[in-house]
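Dear colleague,

Thank you for sharing your sequence with our group. We've completed the structure prediction you requested, and as agreed, I am returning the results in plain text so they can be pasted directly into your records. Please verify that the sequence below matches your submission; if there's any discrepancy, let me know and we will rerun it promptly.
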Amino acid sequence: MKKNKKVVDIFIPCFVDQVYPETGFSMVKVLEHLGCEVHYNPDQTCCGQPAFNAGYFDEAREVAIKFLKDFPSSDRYVVSPSASCVGMVCNSYSRLFDHTSYVLEYKRIQRNTFELTDFITNVLGIQHIPGAHFNAKVTYHDSCSALRECKIKEGPRKLLESVKGIEILELKDNETCCGFGGTFAVKFEPISVGMAEQKVTNAIETGADIITSTDVSCLMHLDGYIKKNQLPIRTLHIADILASGLK
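Please find the predicted structure tokens below.
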């Protein structure tokens, strides 16, 4: 093992596992390319966010306890390609575990858990992915969880700007929600669709080929609107862009 090599556990969110597994592989490729030793626990499932957001706190706590047990190492970082899940762990776990016997465990997890781009830029101290190459015009969507819960703003942009062949086009109203919001998209479908329409329209107006973000949930929502209306743009997670061209 290289001196000071970072050892990380990866957490693969539900959407990545079931719908976009290639994004998980892209994250591993990027982390290993940057010299990390990557571990994956196949017993992992969910962070508990869907149940928590729906108000089922007891059920969410049960899932969250399993999450704590799935990542027992105190000296490893937990890295995920989802600011939404990281926001759940680093913020909402306090509401589930304060004044319980799990206080020390959940605080350890909170200290160690990072979204992928945040980990690269602020833990590894890297703002350039050597060898990354991606020929496309790309616009970046600030997910609500990344921006508001994880305070992630400049890191993803700096990493994207370092990719050879890429052209970054800033999105109008980039801090506005895409309309997904988990069960919000189900309970308030007309509003959700209208928000997706606005986001996609703004993206197309930039001249971009691709919308990217830290969250596949946002991208899945936007991709559904794009495909239904046969629009000339597509979505791609930032991990897939950063992994492009790497061997």
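Summary note from our side: The radius of gyration is 18 Å.

Kind regards,
the structure core
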